[in-house]
Amino acid sequence: MLNFDMLLKLSISLILIILSFIATYTMFEIFGKTEGRKNMDILKKIHRINGRLFFMIFLFGAIACIYMLSQSKAELTPRATLHAFSAVAIFLLFSLKILFIKYYRQFYSYAKLMGVLIVLLTFNLLAFSTGYSLVTGQSDRAISTKEANVETIASKDGNVENGKRLFSQLCSSCHYTDRRDFRRAAPGLKGLFKEKTLPVSKRPVTDENVTLQIKNPYRYMPSFNDLTDAQIRDIISYLKTL
């Protein structure tokens, strides 16, 4: 099941892909054909409106990502750093393209190349962010959960070894187990059950609140409500050993 953050990212990505295709088509029609071109005025108008929509939605997505990063207090991973550089490059190219078209007409010929680069960088950015998260996050989680269902040993206190394996498969990409600070996309969980409150939601550290965080997470953590109660007990039992 996709959580709200993933649905939002997927929706923005889909809109940007559609706008990129429209931009590419109109640009090729305007600059790439010498004969049999369609109504140039209409094509240019569509291209301008499409560009403005692209810029506004791209800016909204960038601001949303910056806000989520600031709230999580996480350091940028190498992949996130690549995303950031790609986003900055797209923004700069878009700004230069507007300047060349509007004010510095002597550089107008470069606008075509910039348009192509913007489209290519956009596809690269979306493929390595939303596409990667959707494919690896959702499929790996589904596979891991299916495998875990076979081997879960249900008990009142939970199975520590199975909890460790589940944590490694589902949680370790974001959470450290040997520290408490934010070094990935989420806080480290060492000594979690020795603390009074959970690191982000600030709710009391109890089995019930950890279960709530796993199934219906506070803020930007993905939901794992497809896990069984026994699997969650196993994970909690493992967390208590940290």
From TrEMBL:
The keyword Transmembrane applies. GO terms for molecular function: electron transfer activity; heme binding; metal ion binding. PROSITE patterns: CYTC. Residues 158-242 form the Cytochrome c domain. The chain crosses the membrane at residues 6-28, 49-70, 82-101, 113-135. Keywords: Heme, Iron, Membrane, Metal-binding, Transmembrane, Transmembrane helix. This is Cytochrome c2.
